[in-house]
Automatic annotation (TrEMBL):
<keyword id="KW-0472">Membrane</keyword>
<keyword id="KW-0813">Transport</keyword>
<protein>
    <submittedName>
        <fullName>Amino acid transporter</fullName>
    </submittedName>
</protein>
<dbReference type="Pfam" id="PF13906">
    <property type="entry name" value="AA_permease_C"/>
</dbReference>
<feature type="transmembrane region" description="Helical">
    <location>
        <begin position="484"/>
        <end position="501"/>
    </location>
</feature>
<dbReference type="GO" id="GO:0015171">
    <property type="term" value="F:amino acid transmembrane transporter activity"/>
</dbReference>
<feature type="transmembrane region" description="Helical">
    <location>
        <begin position="388"/>
        <end position="408"/>
    </location>
</feature>
<feature type="transmembrane region" description="Helical">
    <location>
        <begin position="295"/>
        <end position="319"/>
    </location>
</feature>
<dbReference type="Pfam" id="PF13520">
    <property type="entry name" value="AA_permease_2"/>
</dbReference>
<dbReference type="InterPro" id="IPR002293">
    <property type="entry name" value="AA/rel_permease1"/>
</dbReference>
<feature type="transmembrane region" description="Helical">
    <location>
        <begin position="67"/>
        <end position="88"/>
    </location>
</feature>
<feature type="transmembrane region" description="Helical">
    <location>
        <begin position="39"/>
        <end position="61"/>
    </location>
</feature>
<feature type="transmembrane region" description="Helical">
    <location>
        <begin position="253"/>
        <end position="274"/>
    </location>
</feature>
<feature type="domain" description="Cationic amino acid transporter C-terminal">
    <location>
        <begin position="510"/>
        <end position="553"/>
    </location>
</feature>
<keyword id="KW-1133">Transmembrane helix</keyword>
<feature type="transmembrane region" description="Helical">
    <location>
        <begin position="420"/>
        <end position="439"/>
    </location>
</feature>
<keyword id="KW-0812">Transmembrane</keyword>
Amino acid sequence: MSNSLFRKKSIEKIISDHQQGLADGHIGGMKKVLNVRDLTLMGVAAVIGAGIFSTIGSAAFNGGPGVIFLFIITAITCGFTALCYAEFASRVPVSGSAYTYSYVTFGELIAWILGWALILEYSIGNIVVAISWSAYFNNILENVFHISLPAHLTTGYETAKHAYEAALAAGQPTGDLIYTNAPKLLGFPLIVNLPAFLIVCIITMLAYIGIRESKNTANFMVGLKIVVLLFIAAVGIWIIFTDDLTGNWTPFLPNGMAGVLKGVSAVFFAYIGFDAISTTAEECANPQRDMPRGMINSLILCTVIYVITTLVITGMVNYKDFEGVTDPLAFVFDKINMQKVGTFISISAVIAATSVMLVFQIGQPRIWMSMSRDGLLPKSFSKIHHRFQTPSFATIVTGFVVGIPVLFADDKLMTDLTSIGTLFAFVLVCGGVLVLPRVASTPGKFNLPYINGKFIIPVLVILFTILSWNRLTEAVGNIGTEGYQEILFLVFMFVAWLIAIVSFIRNYSLIPVLGMLCCMYLMIEIPAKSWLVFFVWMALGLMIYFFYGYRNSRLARA
């Protein structure tokens, strides 16, 4: 049975099935309309969204102006993964993203686990973005149109309940809270995030219509976002030097690198999404050439935008003022009495979140389509609409998976789950490159440069151990009494040393190993409570695989 659990698909077989259109009776292809510019803008659409309009504030509060190092560190981590994605995308130019790549390298069971984890990145991630969209949208309704929606129709049930429980625990009054004042339905408070639900429905319809229409809409929104951010940068720099606010950049690292690194895991959420490019391989005109360029271009462009924007807002307003701020770009202009500019930025934030949802809502159905073609999901998920040439059924299901929970969910838990699922996928993609056989460089195709990590990787692990020696000795000395977070740290150290030893023996390539280690470290910084939910999610996925996918797999029938 172990052999059948890890049965693999060859690259040649995947490409052959794709070219002949034979996968589960699927005939014909999808529209090949995406080029380098489209892919780059799609990556920017996914990355420049909720992060730059929300999490950048808390990161600035912890790290001060030096938080730019935070974005650079996170970008480097994603950069290692992007290069590995580019290698796979060049050699396996079909839909499916990391799921398909794992099927080639690790086998069916790991591919299923990864495909199931990717739901956390795309679908659950879209829940977070939809909630952020709703907050900015309600702000615009109040400030521009003077329309105030009832609070119980603009807040998730779990969010309102947590606020109520926190107030009770702190001994604070609860009479003014949403959970207390909401109308009751069969004895339960009627609390739903209606705007978030409606935008999910609209985005799902757009993704259903077609990739060309989605592409044009995404490109328009990305262009508008970039114009808005350039406007913020220009006005901000002018204000900083005109009003002599450069003192806000001193000290540059008020809390040292510890303060900068404190928000790494949270800011990571701002970078997820660039891998959504790899799910559109079948709709790319020249995937071997264009997809690697699109991924890397979008990552570089987004990092530059993050760094410039961070320097501008920390120059306009002292970093200490960002405590608890969830709309930092609008906040800095409100702080200097430019409320109209702040409202304009709120409008751009709505556009930003919309483009992110669109990209994610395009990516998820194509992963399910690939899993269905392999027999791991019912055939309906790989059904292509005869007119729009999109995975229609999978797109509708994605709409339900995102739309129903967004009415009730709490965004904090969803953010953690999204980060875990994404980092888990990144680790397997980086590890998968190590399993791929080396091939000769081919003109027009991307090949990951090989850098021998025989000595570099062990040296880096030794340096990290020295820098983390206090935490390590404390965790070891408290074995049996430490919390889950320290246990995760000990597990990471064990795995890091194991990887260092194997890299020394087998001369592993440096870039994918660094990608694995960086992503694993970010994973252990996520709260243990979210890890427990993640394990429950994985258990549910394994049940579905063994009851359906294992028996209906195309490889099993073969």
